[in-house]
Design a protein that fits this description.
The chain is mainly α. 72% of the residues lie in helices and 4% in strands. It is built from seven helices and two strands. Strands 1-2 form a two-stranded parallel ribbon. Helix 1 packs antiparallel against helix 2.
Length: 138
């Protein structure tokens, strides 16, 4: 890979990382999508950046479970879906353009169906679903 291509990929990764960190503090800015972009760029751009990012608390808290097991806690799903939905609702109600409204509705339907049906929901409780009252199999 050429130096310029690596530089561009790492630059996008660093910008996405900055936006992801801002998203931790600003509820309207989604954190996880920017951190996923960061991870993608760092994997493609530099082993050193990728190793550093995977060892960070930010990666472990927001991405590790999703990347390794393809699952996400229900609370994290809603923390992603709701702010983005709010951002999409603003132009939906402000502008009376039919094509734009259809596009936004299509995006919202796709987004919710993907997060709710394609990404497994992690069980937040340590209770075995087979034995919900704490009984054992013995």
């Amino acid at each position: 890979m050429s130096f310029i291509k690596k530089f561009l990929i790492l630059s996008v990764g660093i910008i996405a990382l900055g936006l992801g960190i801002l998203g931790v503090f600003l509820p309207i800015l989604p954190t996880v999508p920017f951190l996923l972009l960061t991870s993608y760029c760092f994997v493609r751009g530099s082993d050193r950046f990728d190793d550093w990012f995977r060892k960070s608390n930010l990666y472990k808290k927001y991405l590790e479970d999703f990347i390794t097991h393809r699952r996400m806690a229900l609370k994290k799903k809603w923390m992603i879906l709701l702010p983005v939905s709010f951002c999409l609702a603003v132009p939906f109600f402000l502008f009376d353009i039919l094509a734009m409204r259809i596009g936004i509705l299509t995006l919202v339907i796709f987004k919710y169906s993907y997060f709710l049906f394609r990404i497994e929901t992690a069980n937040p409780s340590p209770i075995d679903p087979k034995y919900p009252c704490g009984e054992s199999a013995e």
